[in-house]
Amino acid sequence: RQAVWAPGSGRTLRALVRVQLRQLFTPPPNLSDRWLLNAALGILGLMTTSWLVGDYLYDRLAATGHARLWLPLGLALLSMAALAAGLSGLGSLFFQLRDLPLVAALPVAPGVLGASKLLVALIGQWLLTVSLAFALVPGALGQGFGADFWARTVPVLLLLPLPPLAVAALVLLAIARLVP
């Protein structure tokens, strides 16, 4: 019987996360040159689109005199995007695993395996949040926020994916209990 968290589990967790991230973000051998260009263009397109949506949202709110609603509405939209990405990411990490037989055979506690899967999903959530956070820039510039706003924004954006990820995990656990 293995403990949920034993001495040395931190190193094991770090190694499992590194292997899973490498598996997720390593391109296929025959597409290695185009893969990086496509990924960079996709991220740039996502940032540009989120900037344009944020600018449109702020302009419409400012035109109707509700510019103060920009930040809560922007954070709510980011949370909804994080929830959708969390459901998709956790669903594929837990239910469509190609590495499950290999990982289950490792002499690692189940808690460490689950924590590594959740950390990989959280890293994906942070990448999405950073890309979509550009939607907040036009409103912050329009309202004249300074450096103190940006200093408070970074911790909020780091913590923003946690509640949607927890909700996504609970929804997926309920689905796993109901579906045979």
Summarize the structure.
With 180 residues, the chain is mainly alpha-helical. It has 8 helices and no strands.
Structural class category = mainly alpha
Spell out the helices and strands N to C: HHHHHHHH
Residues in β-strands, percent: under 5%
Amount of helix: over 70%
Outline: globular
Mean pLDDT across residues: 83
Q: Total strand count, please? A: 0
Q: Report the radius of gyration as a whole number of Å.
A: 19 Å
The end-to-end distance, rounded to whole angstroms, is: 27 Å
- Give a short account of the largest sheet: none
- List low-confidence stretches: none
The number of helices is 8
Structure overview:
With 180 residues, the protein is mainly α. It is 77% helix and 0% strand. The chain has eight helices and no strands. Helix 3 (70-95) crosses helix 8 (162-178). It is globular and about 60 Å long. The two termini are 27 Å apart.
